[in-house]
Amino acid sequence: MIKNSNREKLSDKMFDSPVCGGKFVNKLFERLVAKKVEFKNVDFRYCIFDSSYLRNCSFEDCDFTGSRFVNSNLVGSSFNGCKFDYASFEKSHIDSDILKVGCPGPENLKLKFARSLRINYQQLGDAKSANQAISIELQASEDHLHKAWKSQESYYRKKFKGLNRIKVFFEWFEFKVLDFIWGNGESTWKLFRAVFIALLLISGFHAFINKRLNDLNFYCESFILSPQILLGVLNPAGYPSLYLTVIFLFRLIMFGFFMSIIIKRFNRR
């Protein structure tokens, strides 16, 4: 049955003195104002902060479980020992330090927390903070997928078992492969490393096809030629068509990855 949530709406209110041990569960704060106010052990579970101004405030051991921040300004505010499980942010100005001190413990909650902040920072055009959130999101994703198929913790073994455990293993394996190749879309350096490894393999194959495996000087010459082979400028005689096709596909994929990284970087600005 559906019943009233009894959410209380508080509009145009202001905190003008320190708050210790207060309980504001399931409240809707509209245009709430607080400046340089200390909040200690305050319960803000399931609250919605809409168009609120909470600047340069200090939150210590506060509970924001399930809370939502929309079009709010929390610049300069600090959060020490606060709980942000299932909290979400939308078009809200908040310092990126919260990523260092506010992340939930469980990897799946940390993933959702970082993702929410990443989208929030992208909405504001804050590329630097968005990049910080992405780093935490990717690390939390890797840890979560790894634990999902390998950890013996009761949460993971209850949720991921049988075929689901096998499926999540392949998801983790795909994540690791893509992370190695291009950092899952976030690392130009890893993409160049993958291309460098490909050039070494092309050099080795060129030495093999010419039966010069023991000639170090020929390896050097092959490495110099490898960029031309990779880019399709040079197609040496005797190369199998299948091998040239693989190089062509690799070139298209690497170019696509590179353009994707560039577009992502510009879209965050």
* Mean residue pLDDT: 92
Strand order of the largest sheet: 1-4-7-10-12
The coarse silhouette is: elongated
Measured as a percent range, the helix fraction is 40-55%
Notable characteristics:
269 residues; alpha/beta; 4-stranded parallel sheet; 8 helices; 12 strands; 13% strand; elongated
Q: What is this structure, in a nutshell?
A:
The chain has helices at residues 98-101, 107-124, 127-150, 154-159, 163-182, 188-209, 216-231, 241-267, and strands at 8-11, 14-15, 19-20, 27-30, 33-35, 38-40, 48-50, 53-55, 58-60, 68-70, 78-80, 88-90.
Task: Outline the fold blueprint.
Layout (H helix, E strand, L loop, with lengths): L7 E4 L2 E2 L3 E2 L6 E4 L2 E3 L2 E3 L7 E3 L2 E3 L2 E3 L7 E3 L7 E3 L7 E3 L7 H4 L5 H18 L2 H24 L3 H6 L3 H20 L5 H22 L6 H16 L9 H27 L2
Parallel strand pairs: 1-4, 2-5, 3-6, 4-7, 5-8, 6-9, 7-10, 9-11, 10-12
Helix pairs in contact: 2-3, 3-5, 5-6, 6-7
